[in-house]
Automatic annotation (TrEMBL):
The gene is EA652_0671. InterPro entries: DUF6444, Transposase-related, Transposase_IS66_central. Pfam families: DDE_Tnp_IS66, DUF6444. Keywords: Coiled coil. This is Transposase IS66 family protein.
Amino acid sequence: MTTALQGKIVAENANLKEEIKALSRENDSLKAKIVELEDKLGLNSQNSSLPPSRDIYRKKGKKKSDKNPGGQPGHKAHKRELMAADEVVSCIIDKICMCESKVILEDEIVHQKVELPEIKPIVTEYRLQRGRCRVCNKRITANLPQGVTRDLLGSNAKTIISSLSGFFINSKREVQQILSSIFNLNISLGLVSNTERRVSKKCASEYERMKEELQGSEYLHIDETGHKNQGKRGWSWVITNKALKLLKVTESRGKKVLKSLLPEYDGIVVSDRYAVYNYFNRENRQICWAHLARDFERFAHSKNVEVSKIGQALKSLSNKVFVVDKAKKQNLIDNLRFYRLMRKIRKRVKHFLRKMTRVVNSTQASRMAAKMLRSEDMMWKFLRKPEVIETTNNLAERQIRRYVIYRKNSFFTWSERGERFVERMLSIFLTSRLNGQNPFQKLQNLVAVTA
C-alpha cells in the first residue's frame, strides 16, 4: 500500500470518528429534548399550577365503597334546631282509651311546620304637588320625604338584586327571571345593571376600609388568577388573612398592583414563587409548600431516571414537612422536637436540590432547582412563628375559588364598572363568611344608609 493511499485512509478514518462524535452529541441532545417534551406532556394539576379543568388525562374515580350511602353507624348526629313558633296549635288525645281505661298524660311531641308567605312587592306611591309662581312664572315641585331617592327600588330590593348576582352568582337575565317568578316584580335588564352600579357605590367606603385594615395585618396570603374584560386579558388578585378577604380585578399582573394595594407593607407574605412577589422583603416571605410539593411531584414523574429519583426523595421530604407541621399544631410534639425535625428536613432538601442542579441532560429541572436554591431561605420562614405563619397558601387559593366559579358563570366582565362591582361584592361576601356573619345582612346595612 502506498504512503499516499495510507494517509488518505487515516484522514478518512479521522473524519468518520469526528462525524460519529458529532452524531453522538446530537443524539444525546435529541434524547434530552424528547425527555423534556415528555415531561411537559405529563403536566397536570397534581404536578404543576395547571387547574384540574386543564387535565388531559383524568384519573379514574375511586373504587366504589361497600358501605351504604348516607351517615355511617357511630357518626355524630346533626339535627335541626326548633325555631320560635308564631302560632302554637295543641293536639289533644282522648282521656279514655279504647279499652275504656283512663289515659295518663306523659309529655308532648313537638312537630313544626314551616311555610313561606306569598311574596308581593310593596309599592308606595308619592304624589308630588306641582305649581307655578304667578309673578316670575317659576315652576315649583314638592320634595320627596327625607331618605327617599328618585330611583324605583328601595334598599331591600336593591340588596336582594345585588345578592342574587354578586353573592349567589346568577346572571342578570336569571336575576330578572327570579324577581318575576318568585318576587312578582317585573323589571328590565337595564334596571338590574343600574341597581348593581348603585349598590357598588354604597360598598366603596367599606371596600377601602378593608384595604386599609389589611395593610396593618401581621401576615397576608396573596394569589392571582386570570380574568377578562371585553375579551382583553386581565387578572384577579386575592389578598387575605383569617379575618379579611380583598379581591382586586385589574388589567395587570405586575408589581404596580401590589404597590397600589400594599404600599410599604412589612408583614409576612405567603405566596407562590412568582417573581412579582419579590416586591416584598425576602426576609418576610414564605413560599407555599403546596406549590413546592407539586414541583417535586413533577421531578418525580420525569422520564429522566436521575431526575425522577431525586424528585421522589424531595417529594418524600415535602410530605414530612406537612406531617411535622400538623403534629406541632395538634400539640403532638413540643417545640424542641419540631425544630430538630425541621432542621434535618431542611438540610436534606438543600442537599437534593444541589444534586438536581448537577444532573446532566436535564436543563429545565436543573434550572428550576437552581431557582429554588436561590429562594431557599424563603421556604422556611414559617419556622419563625409556626403558630401564625402557614406552610401553604391554601387560605388564598380557597378564597379565590369563589371568583373562579363567578367567572365561569358570568363569562367575565364587560366594563370597569362591572369589575368594581365584582371585587366589592365578593370581598364583602367572603369576609362575612370568614367571620361567621350573614353577608346579606351586611350588605343590607350598607345599602340602607341612604337608600
